[in-house]
Structures are given as structure tokens and as C-alpha cells.
Amino acid sequence: MKACLKPTAEDFVTIHHELGHNYYQRAYSTQPYLFKGAANDGFHEAIGDFAALSAVTPTYLKQIGLIDTVPGAEEDIPFLLKMALDKIAFLPFGLLVDRWRWEVFSGEVTPDHYNDAWWKLRLQYQGLTPPGPRPADAFDPAAKYHVPGNTPYTRYFLARIYQFQFHRAACEQMGWKGPLHRCSVYGQKEVGQKFNAMMELGQSQPWPQTLAVFTKDSKTDASAVAAYFKPLDAWLTQQNKGERCGW
Predict the structure, then answer these.
(1) CA torsion, points 239, 87, 206, 170, in degrees to nearest 10?
(2) Which string of DSSP letters, residue by residue, matches the chain?
(3) Within 10 Å of residue 157's Cβ, how many Cβ atoms?
(4) Residues 181 and 86: beta-carbon distance below 8 Å
(5) Do 161 and 220 contact (CB within 8 A), yes or no?
(6) pTM
(7) What is the domain partition of the chain in residue ranges?
(8) Cβ count near 14 (within 10 Å)
(9) Has residue 239 got a pLDDT over 80?
(10) What is the rounded distance in angstroms from the CA atom of residue 22 to the CA atom of residue 29?
(11) Chain segment 97-116, per-residue pLDDT in tens
(12) Which residues have C-beta within 8 Å of that of residue 69, sequence separation ≥ 6?
């Protein structure tokens, strides 16, 4: 694997994400040619991030010597806030990129309205507007590589959900009783074997069946995301009491 990495917290997560692709490819390498792929695109993007959910826990960071002591529960909210800025704040953008693309491909949006349609979705889903008037020939969607590169983007939206489904299932399998954001599956070989059994299936059957092999759930389920961030949700509800949220 070739990657331009630096010893930073961000690239610590990035290397888990990218290696996830490699481990998945290795797992399904024995499948017939037509089945050498992800159960669906979201699986490929989620697997390394699932590993990273354990790798960023204080317990694991202490085990590998990156921190000296495991912070107490008083540090949970700052940790979850940081995670939410990555995992939760991304969801509306992850959804709107292909929403815009599908409108373009269907002809619903014509070339003279490409940019206006982009910002309409940015406002609808993210509450964002451009910093000033855009020129008539502006094409802001092209600033996102996946648009001119013709790379589907819903995979990243789905991955933000699947990684938490995988994480919750793994933590349940190892008998974890604490909060999900403190769970690390590091060293749980039996869990790893079960996860590898799912990865080995590649694209050989419908993805709901493959998802159920590890999670026992055949549907995309965001309740695992809510469970992971439950302490933060309770804290934010209290902090925003009486405030008008939205745009």
C-alpha cells in the first residue's frame, strides 16, 4: 500500500481505514473472480473504520504506549464531541453528494442549474451557504474529488453506519458491559475469526445476508450510532435546553 502519512492522530485513523481495504481484499481473495468485491460499497469503507473505533479508545492507546494513563469518565464528553465532529457531522454531506449526482444524471437538474442545485442541497442538509454570490459559471461540486472523479459517494454515508453496527456486534460478542465508546476489541481472536468469516464471503451473496453473518441483523441500522453517542446526546440535550436549534 502506498500512502502519504505523517505521525498524527488523523493519519493514525487513516492507516486503519486504508489497511481495512487490504484485509478485506485478502479475506475474499479466494472467491471466484466475479465475487471478489465488497458485499456492498459501504462495507469496504466501513471495515478499517470499525477497527479504528477500537484503536482510538484510551484503553488501546495505553496498551500500545501512546498515552501514559487512561482518562476517567470526565473526559468522555470531549472525546465524544471530537468523534461526533468526524462521524456525525459528515452524515448530511455523505448523503447529499449522490443526491445531487442522481438529480444531474436523471435530467432533473440541467447544466445551467448544477451549482444552484448543489447549494440548495448544502443548505437543506447542512445549513451551509456560500460565503458570497457565486459567478454564473461556478461549478463548486467539482471541488470534491469524487464528483469529477466519478466515484460513488453513498458508500461513505453507509460506512458511517456499518462501522458502528460492526462495533456494537463485536463488543456484544466479547461480553462488553460498559459504554460502547470505551470498548476495544483488541486481542479478541474469536471475534476476529467471526468477522473474517464475514469478510471472506466477499460479494458471493446478497449483502443483507452477509451483514447478518456477523451482526445478526440484515438491515442497515443506525441505532448503533445512537447507542455509541448516547452520553453525548444526553449532555447536548441539557446544554441546548431552551435554545432554538436548526436553520
Answers:
(1) -80
(2) ------SSHHHHHHHHHHHHHHHHHHHTTTS-GGG-S-SSHHHHHHHHHHHHHHHTSHHHHHHTTS-SS---GGGHHHHHHHHHHHHHHHHHHHHHHHHHHHHHHHTSS-GGGHHHHHHHHHHHHH----SSPPPTT--GGGGSTTTTTT---HHHHHHHHHHHHHHHHHHHHTT--S-GGG---TT-HHHHHHHHHHHTTTTSS-HHHHHHHHHS--S--THHHHHHTHHHHHHHHHHTTT-----
(3) 21
(4) no
(5) yes
(6) 0.92
(7) 9-88+153-236
(8) 17
(9) yes
(10) 10
(11) 999 999 999 999 999 999 99
(12) 62
pLDDT digit string, tens, across residues 190-233: 999 999 999 999 999 999 999 999 999 999 999 999 999 999 99
Residue 1 predicted with pLDDT over 80: no
Q: How far is CA 239 from the centre of its chain?
A: 26
Q: Are 161 and 167 in contact (CB under 8 A)?
A: no
CA separation for the pair 214, 88 (Å, rounded): 24
Q: How far is CA 72 from the centre of its chain?
A: 26
